[in-house]
Amino acid sequence: MGFSHRFRQLSLCTLLVAALSATALANGSHERTQFGHDIVVASGEEVGEATCFGCSVRVRGHVTGDVTTFFGGVITEEGGNIGGDATSMGGSVRLEAKSKIGGDLTVFGGRIHRDPESEIGGDVTNFSGGFWILLIFVLPFIVLGAFIALIVWVIRRLTRPALPAPV
Questions:
Q1: Domain total for the chain?
Q2: Average pLDDT, whole number, for the chain?
């Protein structure tokens, strides 16, 4: 057995251990991330964190960490509890009676529907309306496009052939 073969075996064993460790850590943390499929934390269930892209998070149980949605809403039903922050970009947040958010609540481009019996432990920030979504997501692309157009214009200007002087 040569050095190359042993190195290959050691590399495969290391990758296998790393993959198993990452799987064990992910399963132990009970975090949920979805793309296009709603997340439901059932009554009596506990989840570490919930992140949703293009979908909503419905909390009936307990989320110990943060809940974050992009283009989706957060619904905290009666008795639902979010231990950390709740953030929604491009969606609304609804807090039903006896629901609780332990940290901050931040909503960009949506609305907050809050029952008077609900609790929020931190600050509440609401940037309602589509203007904020345009500002956050579209403006950087406009600036990037203008910067690229400037670079193309400068390169074309510098590489333009010189015109001969009239005689």
A1: 2
A2: 82
